[in-house]
Amino acid sequence: MPSANELKIPVHIAVIMDGNGRWARQRGLPRQLGHRQGVKALREIVRTCGEIGVKFLTAFTFSTENWQRPAQEIESLMKLLARAIEQEQAELIKNNVRVRAIGRLTDLPEWVQKKLRTLISETKTNTGLNLTLALSYGGRAEIIDALKKAYALWRSGRLNRPPRTEEEFTQLLYDPELPPVDLLIRTGGEQRISNFLLWQSAYAELLFTETLWPDFRREQLMAAIADFSRRQRRFGRIDEK
Ligand code: IPE
Ligand code: IPE
Ligand code: MG
User: Does pTM surpass 0.85?
Assistant: First the structure.
Protein backbone atom coordinates (compact mmCIF):
# COMPACT_ATOMS: atom_id res chain seq x y z
CA MET A 1 0.00 0.00 0.00
CA PRO A 2 1.54 3.38 -0.97
CA SER A 3 1.88 5.87 1.87
CA ALA A 4 -0.33 8.95 2.05
CA ASN A 5 2.30 11.22 0.49
CA GLU A 6 2.51 9.06 -2.64
CA LEU A 7 -1.24 9.31 -3.18
CA LYS A 8 -3.49 11.91 -4.71
CA ILE A 9 -5.59 12.97 -1.77
CA PRO A 10 -9.14 13.92 -2.77
CA VAL A 11 -10.29 17.31 -1.51
CA HIS A 12 -13.82 16.07 -0.92
CA ILE A 13 -14.74 12.48 -0.09
CA ALA A 14 -18.40 11.52 0.29
CA VAL A 15 -19.45 8.23 1.87
CA ILE A 16 -22.70 6.31 1.66
CA MET A 17 -22.36 4.34 4.87
CA ASP A 18 -24.44 1.31 3.94
CA GLY A 19 -24.53 -2.20 5.36
CA ASN A 20 -24.89 -1.74 9.11
CA GLY A 21 -28.05 -3.86 9.24
CA ARG A 22 -26.49 -6.72 7.29
CA TRP A 23 -23.34 -6.56 9.41
CA ALA A 24 -25.51 -7.14 12.49
CA ARG A 25 -27.68 -9.80 10.87
CA GLN A 26 -24.62 -11.82 9.84
CA ARG A 27 -23.74 -11.98 13.54
CA GLY A 28 -27.25 -12.65 14.79
CA LEU A 29 -27.29 -9.22 16.48
CA PRO A 30 -30.00 -6.55 16.50
CA ARG A 31 -29.66 -3.90 13.76
CA GLN A 32 -28.90 -1.18 16.26
CA LEU A 33 -25.63 -2.88 17.18
CA GLY A 34 -24.68 -2.66 13.52
CA HIS A 35 -25.37 1.07 13.61
CA ARG A 36 -23.36 1.41 16.79
CA GLN A 37 -20.42 -0.31 15.12
CA GLY A 38 -20.99 2.02 12.17
CA VAL A 39 -20.31 5.00 14.44
CA LYS A 40 -16.95 3.46 15.35
CA ALA A 41 -16.10 3.06 11.68
CA LEU A 42 -16.99 6.70 11.02
CA ARG A 43 -14.81 7.81 13.93
CA GLU A 44 -11.82 5.98 12.40
CA ILE A 45 -12.52 7.40 8.93
CA VAL A 46 -12.83 10.95 10.31
CA ARG A 47 -9.54 10.59 12.18
CA THR A 48 -7.77 9.19 9.12
CA CYS A 49 -9.12 11.85 6.77
CA GLY A 50 -7.89 14.53 9.16
CA GLU A 51 -4.44 12.94 9.35
CA ILE A 52 -3.93 12.58 5.60
CA GLY A 53 -5.20 16.06 4.73
CA VAL A 54 -8.65 15.46 3.24
CA LYS A 55 -10.43 18.82 3.53
CA PHE A 56 -14.07 17.68 3.26
CA LEU A 57 -15.73 14.44 4.31
CA THR A 58 -19.49 14.20 3.83
CA ALA A 59 -21.25 11.27 5.46
CA PHE A 60 -24.72 10.10 4.43
CA THR A 61 -26.14 9.56 7.90
CA PHE A 62 -29.91 9.60 7.40
CA SER A 63 -31.79 10.05 4.14
CA THR A 64 -35.16 11.64 3.42
CA GLU A 65 -36.23 8.11 2.42
CA ASN A 66 -35.05 6.61 5.71
CA TRP A 67 -38.11 8.18 7.42
CA GLN A 68 -40.01 5.26 5.88
CA ARG A 69 -38.23 2.79 8.18
CA PRO A 70 -40.08 1.40 11.23
CA ALA A 71 -40.51 3.93 14.05
CA GLN A 72 -38.36 1.84 16.39
CA GLU A 73 -35.40 1.85 13.99
CA ILE A 74 -35.74 5.63 13.46
CA GLU A 75 -35.84 6.19 17.19
CA SER A 76 -32.76 4.10 17.86
CA LEU A 77 -30.90 5.91 15.06
CA MET A 78 -31.84 9.32 16.51
CA LYS A 79 -30.74 8.27 19.99
CA LEU A 80 -27.48 6.93 18.64
CA LEU A 81 -26.90 10.14 16.72
CA ALA A 82 -27.52 12.28 19.78
CA ARG A 83 -25.24 10.11 21.89
CA ALA A 84 -22.48 10.11 19.27
CA ILE A 85 -22.66 13.91 18.96
CA GLU A 86 -22.16 14.20 22.70
CA GLN A 87 -19.46 11.58 23.03
CA GLU A 88 -17.38 12.64 20.03
CA GLN A 89 -17.45 16.38 20.70
CA ALA A 90 -14.21 16.54 22.71
CA GLU A 91 -12.21 14.47 20.25
CA LEU A 92 -13.55 16.42 17.26
CA ILE A 93 -12.50 19.67 18.90
CA LYS A 94 -9.10 18.24 19.78
CA ASN A 95 -8.60 17.11 16.20
CA ASN A 96 -9.54 20.52 14.78
CA VAL A 97 -12.58 19.09 12.93
CA ARG A 98 -15.31 21.50 11.86
CA VAL A 99 -18.73 19.86 11.86
CA ARG A 100 -21.38 20.93 9.38
CA ALA A 101 -24.80 19.54 8.52
CA ILE A 102 -26.92 19.45 5.39
CA GLY A 103 -30.48 18.26 4.90
CA ARG A 104 -33.97 19.09 6.12
CA LEU A 105 -32.61 19.51 9.61
CA THR A 106 -35.88 20.82 11.02
CA ASP A 107 -37.38 17.35 10.40
CA LEU A 108 -35.10 15.96 13.12
CA PRO A 109 -36.43 15.74 16.68
CA GLU A 110 -35.79 19.02 18.53
CA TRP A 111 -33.50 17.33 21.10
CA VAL A 112 -31.27 16.08 18.28
CA GLN A 113 -31.27 19.48 16.55
CA LYS A 114 -30.21 21.12 19.78
CA LYS A 115 -27.18 18.84 20.27
CA LEU A 116 -26.27 19.23 16.62
CA ARG A 117 -26.42 23.02 16.81
CA THR A 118 -24.12 22.97 19.83
CA LEU A 119 -21.59 20.72 18.07
CA ILE A 120 -21.64 22.91 14.96
CA SER A 121 -21.13 26.10 16.94
CA GLU A 122 -18.44 24.58 19.20
CA THR A 123 -16.40 23.54 16.16
CA LYS A 124 -17.10 26.56 13.96
CA THR A 125 -13.64 28.05 14.19
CA ASN A 126 -11.78 24.76 13.59
CA THR A 127 -9.61 24.74 10.49
CA GLY A 128 -8.91 21.05 9.84
CA LEU A 129 -11.24 18.52 8.25
CA ASN A 130 -14.78 19.69 7.46
CA LEU A 131 -17.06 16.83 8.48
CA THR A 132 -20.52 17.29 6.99
CA LEU A 133 -23.33 15.12 8.30
CA ALA A 134 -26.12 14.61 5.78
CA LEU A 135 -29.23 14.29 7.93
CA SER A 136 -32.76 13.97 6.61
CA TYR A 137 -30.91 14.62 3.39
CA GLY A 138 -32.04 13.95 -0.16
CA GLY A 139 -30.38 15.27 -3.31
CA ARG A 140 -33.72 16.01 -4.95
CA ALA A 141 -35.04 17.66 -1.78
CA GLU A 142 -31.92 19.87 -1.77
CA ILE A 143 -32.63 21.06 -5.31
CA ILE A 144 -36.30 21.72 -4.53
CA ASP A 145 -35.32 23.53 -1.32
CA ALA A 146 -32.88 25.67 -3.34
CA LEU A 147 -35.72 26.69 -5.65
CA LYS A 148 -37.94 27.47 -2.65
CA LYS A 149 -35.16 29.57 -1.16
CA ALA A 150 -34.76 31.51 -4.43
CA TYR A 151 -38.51 32.12 -4.50
CA ALA A 152 -38.57 33.30 -0.87
CA LEU A 153 -35.61 35.63 -1.51
CA TRP A 154 -37.32 37.03 -4.58
CA ARG A 155 -40.60 37.55 -2.70
CA SER A 156 -38.83 39.47 0.02
CA GLY A 157 -36.97 41.63 -2.49
CA ARG A 158 -33.52 40.22 -1.70
CA LEU A 159 -33.15 38.60 -5.13
CA ASN A 160 -34.23 40.37 -8.27
CA ARG A 161 -33.89 37.54 -10.79
CA PRO A 162 -33.60 33.73 -10.83
CA PRO A 163 -30.09 32.23 -10.58
CA ARG A 164 -28.51 31.99 -14.04
CA THR A 165 -25.24 30.19 -13.56
CA GLU A 166 -24.11 27.05 -11.77
CA GLU A 167 -22.20 29.22 -9.31
CA GLU A 168 -25.29 31.25 -8.48
CA PHE A 169 -27.38 28.09 -8.07
CA THR A 170 -24.76 26.58 -5.76
CA GLN A 171 -25.21 29.57 -3.47
CA LEU A 172 -28.77 28.38 -2.79
CA LEU A 173 -27.81 24.85 -1.69
CA TYR A 174 -27.79 23.77 1.97
CA ASP A 175 -24.07 24.49 2.26
CA PRO A 176 -22.66 26.60 -0.57
CA GLU A 177 -19.14 26.03 0.77
CA LEU A 178 -19.18 22.31 -0.03
CA PRO A 179 -16.84 21.79 -2.99
CA PRO A 180 -17.57 19.25 -5.74
CA VAL A 181 -17.19 15.64 -4.60
CA ASP A 182 -13.97 14.06 -5.87
CA LEU A 183 -14.48 10.54 -4.57
CA LEU A 184 -17.85 9.02 -3.70
CA ILE A 185 -17.60 5.73 -1.81
CA ARG A 186 -20.53 3.41 -1.19
CA THR A 187 -20.05 0.43 1.09
CA GLY A 188 -22.40 -2.53 1.40
CA GLY A 189 -22.32 -3.80 -2.17
CA GLU A 190 -25.19 -1.85 -3.73
CA GLN A 191 -24.28 0.13 -6.81
CA ARG A 192 -26.55 3.14 -6.56
CA ILE A 193 -26.48 6.74 -5.40
CA SER A 194 -29.72 6.55 -3.35
CA ASN A 195 -30.38 10.28 -3.81
CA PHE A 196 -27.11 11.46 -2.24
CA LEU A 197 -25.37 14.73 -3.29
CA LEU A 198 -26.82 14.75 -6.81
CA TRP A 199 -25.58 18.23 -7.69
CA GLN A 200 -22.18 18.03 -5.98
CA SER A 201 -21.33 14.54 -7.34
CA ALA A 202 -21.84 15.40 -11.00
CA TYR A 203 -18.21 14.54 -11.79
CA ALA A 204 -17.25 12.43 -8.79
CA GLU A 205 -15.23 9.26 -9.16
CA LEU A 206 -17.48 6.46 -7.93
CA LEU A 207 -16.22 3.58 -5.85
CA PHE A 208 -18.47 0.73 -4.78
CA THR A 209 -17.22 -1.85 -2.32
CA GLU A 210 -18.73 -5.03 -0.91
CA THR A 211 -17.26 -4.19 2.51
CA LEU A 212 -20.06 -3.46 4.97
CA TRP A 213 -19.79 -0.03 6.59
CA PRO A 214 -18.84 -1.25 10.11
CA ASP A 215 -15.83 -3.01 8.52
CA PHE A 216 -14.75 0.04 6.49
CA ARG A 217 -11.68 1.23 8.35
CA ARG A 218 -8.39 3.04 7.73
CA GLU A 219 -7.02 0.25 5.53
CA GLN A 220 -10.11 0.19 3.30
CA LEU A 221 -10.11 3.99 3.04
CA MET A 222 -6.45 4.04 2.00
CA ALA A 223 -7.17 1.35 -0.62
CA ALA A 224 -10.04 3.47 -1.96
CA ILE A 225 -7.76 6.52 -2.18
CA ALA A 226 -5.10 4.42 -3.91
CA ASP A 227 -7.72 3.39 -6.48
CA PHE A 228 -8.76 7.05 -6.88
CA SER A 229 -5.11 8.03 -7.40
CA ARG A 230 -4.85 5.70 -10.38
CA ARG A 231 -7.86 7.16 -12.15
CA GLN A 232 -7.56 9.68 -14.90
CA ARG A 233 -10.09 12.46 -14.54
CA ARG A 234 -10.76 14.08 -17.87
CA PHE A 235 -13.85 16.20 -17.16
CA GLY A 236 -14.88 15.86 -20.79
CA ARG A 237 -11.54 16.96 -22.17
CA ILE A 238 -8.92 15.00 -24.09
CA ASP A 239 -6.02 13.67 -22.05
CA GLU A 240 -3.12 16.06 -22.43
CA LYS A 241 -0.43 13.93 -20.83
C1 IPE B 1 -26.91 2.23 6.63
O2 IPE B 1 -27.07 0.92 6.99
C3 IPE B 1 -27.29 3.19 7.74
C4 IPE B 1 -28.51 3.97 7.47
C5 IPE B 1 -29.20 3.95 6.37
C6 IPE B 1 -28.97 4.82 8.54
P7 IPE B 1 -28.43 0.17 6.74
O8 IPE B 1 -29.28 0.31 7.93
O9 IPE B 1 -29.06 0.62 5.47
O10 IPE B 1 -27.91 -1.31 6.59
P11 IPE B 1 -28.43 -2.43 5.60
O12 IPE B 1 -28.40 -1.84 4.21
O13 IPE B 1 -29.81 -2.76 6.05
O14 IPE B 1 -27.46 -3.54 5.75
C1 IPE C 1 -28.49 5.07 1.97
O2 IPE C 1 -28.64 3.78 2.46
C3 IPE C 1 -28.71 6.07 3.06
C4 IPE C 1 -27.70 6.13 4.09
C5 IPE C 1 -26.58 5.44 4.12
C6 IPE C 1 -27.96 7.06 5.16
P7 IPE C 1 -30.04 3.01 2.33
O8 IPE C 1 -29.83 1.67 2.90
O9 IPE C 1 -31.12 3.85 2.92
O10 IPE C 1 -30.24 2.97 0.76
P11 IPE C 1 -31.08 1.97 -0.16
O12 IPE C 1 -32.41 1.81 0.49
O13 IPE C 1 -30.32 0.70 -0.23
O14 IPE C 1 -31.13 2.67 -1.48
MG1 MG D 1 -28.98 -0.02 3.54
Answer: yes
